[in-house]
Amino acid sequence: MAETTLRGEGFLLRPWRGSDLDSLVRHADDAQVSRGVSDRFPSPYTREDGEAFLSGRVIDLDDPVFAIEIDGEACGGIGAHPGKGERVHSAEFGYWLGRAHWGKGTMTRVVSVFAPWAMRELRLYRLYATVLAFNIGSAQVLRRNGFLEEGVQRAAVFKRGVLHDLRVFAKVRRNLDDDH
Fold first, then answer.
1. Which tens digit of pLDDT belongs to each residue from 60-98?
2. Closest Cα to residue 141, out of 23, 35, 22, 36?
């Protein structure tokens, strides 16, 4: 995955680089961005947090994990975490984007490039994401890309002093020749 680059309308998906530190911190250090993602994504987001991420101490950067580059700057990320053992045919994925790029359809386009690539490259039958119940925008991104809502994990996440439900969205295929 280290050499993989994917292009889409108005963006590039590419491996993270050490030189992304300043733009990573600038876009990630936003309470509105961090409120909808895992607590592995802290708020405030410091240079030390960015250094830890870029060194692979936060998530496994050997998994397909890409920077979202817009206008030459890393301003978000997307990645998948493949399952193990009997769940090797499945992967969970997640994404985030700096607020300066919200509301322009960017993440819908990013997922439209990343999801089919991940399913082909990782030979997946199932690709899924969980979304905090209040995160309507993220749910819309998934629906627009053909992910179906499978259900709700009630009271699944305690974040910033509030208990949240998680909505589960997935795209599946029954054989590896399907384009889904």
1. 888 999 999 999 999 999 999 999 999 999 999 999 999
2. 36
Sheet harboring 65-70: ordered strands across? 6-8, 11-14, 65-70, 73-82, 90-97, 126-132, 162-172, 148-159
- Beta pairing, strands 126-132 & 73-82: unpaired
Q: Strand, coil or helix: what is 89?
A: coil
Phi and psi for 135 in degrees, rounded to 5?
A: -85, 75
SS3 90: strand
Q: What is the dihedral of CA 75, 147, 144, 38, to 10 degrees?
A: -30
What is the pTM (predicted TM-score) of this model?
A: 0.94
Residue 10 tokens, joined: 């108005």
64: preceding bond cis by omega (within 30 degrees)? no
